[in-house]
Amino acid sequence: MSICMIPARGGSKRIPRKNIKPFCGRPMIHWSIEAAKASGVFSRIIVSTDDPEIAATARAAGAEVPFLRPAQLSDDHATTAAVIVHTLDFLKAEGEEPAVICCLYATAPFVRPADIRKGAEMIEGADYVIPVTSYPFPIQRAVRLKGEGLEMFDPSNYATRSQDLEEAYHDAGQFYWGTALAWREGRPAFGAGARPLILPRHRVQDIDTPEDWTRAEAMFRALRQGPGA
């Protein structure tokens, strides 16, 4: 069995109180905790937060909050890796040293227990397992605003057919499996030691702005009501 760590600081700016804001009838963090419990692969589900209200909400959903995160790891500049190492240090002080740990984001309502289990299977022999999904449009044909006009980032691809361009992927922003050693040593998450877990685009949505939130709730309801939901 492994450890799940859910980072959930209280200082979200673009969507205030994002981690516990109601999402389709439940506090947002509840969806991640429920998926972690349903995966059946974790001996402990620990929420790392600096916020007492988030801590209470997490405990009500069945997660542990054995500490409150220090202020220096709770500002806009704190990295996910630093928060994970802090949790590993806490566990080590308790006499528990997991070989791997899963960082599951609090704002990942689309995460599925089966994907978490698949990641657990894939981590053997790797530094990280990272869910990714493909871009819906070739990134090689991206444009920037230039004055009142447009300019391609890479004009050499102007005449290249879309189907002839290499497919590109991005981080799905749901969870990361990683070895304790990789986290502690700061090994690059997007490197030769990482394995991709490819997810379909319709199950991936960043939730960083109010517009994202509205779209995510619509997607979530559609997925739950659709065939095979």
TrEMBL record:
Q: Which domain of life is it from?
A: Bacteria
EC class of the enzyme, as a word: transferase
Q: What Gene Ontology terms describe what this protein does at the molecular function level?
A: N-acylneuraminate cytidylyltransferase activity
Its keywords, alphabetically, are: Nucleotidyltransferase, Transferase
Q: What is its EC number?
A: 2.7.7.82
Q: What Pfam families does UniProt report for this protein, alphabetically? A: CTP_transf_3 (PF02348)
Which InterPro entries does its entry note? CMP-NeuNAc_synthase (IPR050793), Cytidylyl_trans (IPR003329), Nucleotide-diphossugar_trans (IPR029044), PseF (IPR020039)
Query: Which named protein is this?
Result: CMP-N,N'-diacetyllegionaminic acid synthase
Which species? Pseudoruegeria aquimaris
